[in-house]
Write a structure and sequence with these properties.
With 290 residues, this protein is an alpha/beta fold. The strands form three sheets. Strands 4-5-6-8-10 form a five-stranded mixed β-sheet, with helices on both faces. Strands 1-3-2 form a three-stranded antiparallel β-sheet. A two-stranded parallel sheet has the order 7-9. Helix 3 packs across helix 4. It is globular. The chain starts with 15 loop residues before the first helix and ends with a helix.
Length: 290
């Protein structure tokens, strides 16, 4: 775990039960974003606590980092599972929350595959393994976003164009004309080959957070020109910006932050590859049976 202390942010073990509660409220499954948003409410986390970054100008907040730990322990304990598409789900939908104890969950996971006389160094090893899994996910995304930050603005617009095409959009064009209200391109998305929606998009390539006023400005630029808007950034969106994007009575705007952008680039294998490392194990007992 991170060494920094935040008095208004619960430790990961105290977020374990709220994570289960959140999944039950979501009907037994949800994306990381859906789960985290629900935990914020279940655990009654303060707004200022949700803004604390895990690292300076990092991609992940401290709360979300700790929630990653919570999900990892719950998965190792056998209560939840996750699919290749990033959806987490309860293994048993009828789980009794009254019988769960976060301290017992942590203790059990730490003792898995170990003898009762386990040494404290072995517990530290397990913690380091879990931390490595979580940090590795964060690190490759930050490395990717750093690489994207080095390319020219028009190259980022072409990258966005490619992502939308890979996602099934057609007639995707990069406009990027000055004085066009910040609109960088447009395209059409078809649903089941019948319904089609005209979409315009805007690219913001920086580390900061997109504010609600920037979302409103983009919505003003798309007014009367498209059915939907997509706002893509290598950074993040403030919570108020997210609320503004889905405000009732206003044209909807889909938000793609740096983390989701990385996931899409990985999914479509656009400059990102996944390597499977072979692990060889020797079964000594097999030889003894010869």
């Amino acid at each position: 775990m991170a060494k920094r202390k935040y008095s208004n942010i619960p430790p990961y073990n105290e977020l374990i039960i709220p994570t289960i509660r959140a999944l039950k409220q979501l009907g037994g499954s949800g994306t990381i974003e859906e789960i985290n948003e629900t935990v914020y409410k279940v655990a009654n986390l303060a707004e200022d606590a949700l803004k604390v970054p895990h690292k300076d100008e990092g991609l992940t907040t401290e709360v979300d980092y700790r929630l990653a730990w919570s999900r990892t322990y719950l998965k190792k304990y056998g209560l939840i599972e996750n699919s290749a598409r990033g959806v987490w789900a309860l293994i048993n939908a009828d789980i009794n929350l009254d019988k769960l104890n976060h301290e017992e969950i942590v203790k059990t996971v730490r003792e898995q595959s170990k003898e009762a006389s386990v040494k404290s160094e072995q517990i530290d090893t397990i913690n380091r393994e879990i931390a490595h899994q979580i940090e590795e996910s964060i690190d490759w995304k930050e490395e990717l976003l750093n690489a994207i930050s080095q390319i020219a603005p028009d190259a980022f617009e072409r990258l966005t164009q490619r992502i939308l095409r890979e996602s099934g959009f057609v007639q995707v064009e990069v406009t990027g004309k000055s004085g066009d209200g910040g609109i960088d391109g447009k395209g059409i998305v078809k649903i089941n080959g019948f319904l089609s929606f005209h979409v315009i998009f805007q690219c913001k390539r920086y580390k900061g957070s997109v504010s609600p006023s920037q979302v409103r400005d983009f919505r003003g630029a798309m007014q009367g020109r498209a059915d939907k808007g997509i706002l893509i950034t290598t950074g993040t969106f403030t919570r108020d910006a997210i609320k503004e994007a889905t405000r009732d009575g206003a044209p909807p705007i889909d938000l793609i932050d740096g983390e989701l952008l990385c996931e899409k680039l990985k999914e479509f294998k656009l400059g990102v590859s996944t390597e499977l490392i072979e692990k060889v194990s020797v079964n000594k007992s097999w030889y003894k049976q010869l």
